Amino acid sequence: MAETTHHYLIFETAGGFCGIAWSDAGIARFQLPTKSAEATERLLLRRLPDAEPGAPTPAVLETVAAVKRYFQGEETDFSGVELDLAGQDAFFRDIYAAARRVGWGRTTTYGALAKELGAGPEAARDVGQAMAKNPVALIIPCHRVLAAGGKIGGFSAPGGSTSKARMLELEGVNLAPPPPAQQSLGF
User: Fold this and answer.
1) Which GO terms describe its molecular function (predicted)?
2) By three-state DSSP, how is residue 109 classified?
3) Measured between alpha carbons, how far is 139 from 61 in angstroms, rounded to an integer?
């Protein structure tokens, strides 16, 4: 069996430098923004060490343009982007497909995704593991998947949960607790 060839591109957005890697099958890796092209390239190649710089295909260029729009705060839909999820087990691919249905400005929880897939509450942990191992964060919008009770939960990208909160804010999601129902009398 022939080995898959991966190419990559590092590019700048309003959020920082991102990286994208692809094969003939689709986008295989996406690196969320860091402050430098070098840091982004290092993180991308850590997960796909044999990838080589390459000229992007029209589909990759379209995805790059969509990522740039996203980090400018423009509503963006990545659900049609072709992905190369080779090496992912079937349940993780199901989880990723469910996460891709969570649209701009909406959130869900690990437990709700597990339930949507017909799994019990114990599968919420599996959903969390799939999100942590998401090879194409943003394109599979793991930032829209929250912990129980709508808490931010973890985020394995640079900047951790702060980055997750910023991405949700770009989409107009308010994670702050609601204002008190009763106003203070001020004394």
Assistant:
1) methyltransferase activity
2) strand
3) 14
Cβ 148 vs Cβ 121: under 8 Å: no
| DSSP sequence for 18-82 | EEEEEETTEEEEEEEEESSHHHHHHHHHHHSTT-EE-PPPHHHHHHHHHHHHHHTT-----TT--
β-strands 16-23, 7-13: how paired? antiparallel
8 A C-beta contact, residue 105 and residue 172: yes
Residues with Cβ within 8 Å of 138's Cβ and at least 6 positions away in sequence, in order, are 30, 32, 67, 70, 78, 167
Q: Residue 149 carries which DSSP code?
A: G
Spatial contact of 113 and 98, defined as CB atoms under 8 Å apart: yes
Which percentage of the chain shows pLDDT scores above 90?
74
Catalytic-role residue among 142, 157, 167, 170? 142
Question: What is each CA distance from 80 to 59, 70, 90, in whole angstroms?
Answer: 10, 15, 20
18 flagged as catalytic: no
Q: Give the lowest-confidence range in 2-11, 102-111, 177-186.
A: 177-186
DSSP classification of residue 137:
B
- Tell me what the mean pLDDT of segment 112-123 comes to: 89
23 CB burial (10 A radius; 0-12, 13-18, 19+): middle
Element containing residue 111 per DSSP (H, E):
helix 110-116
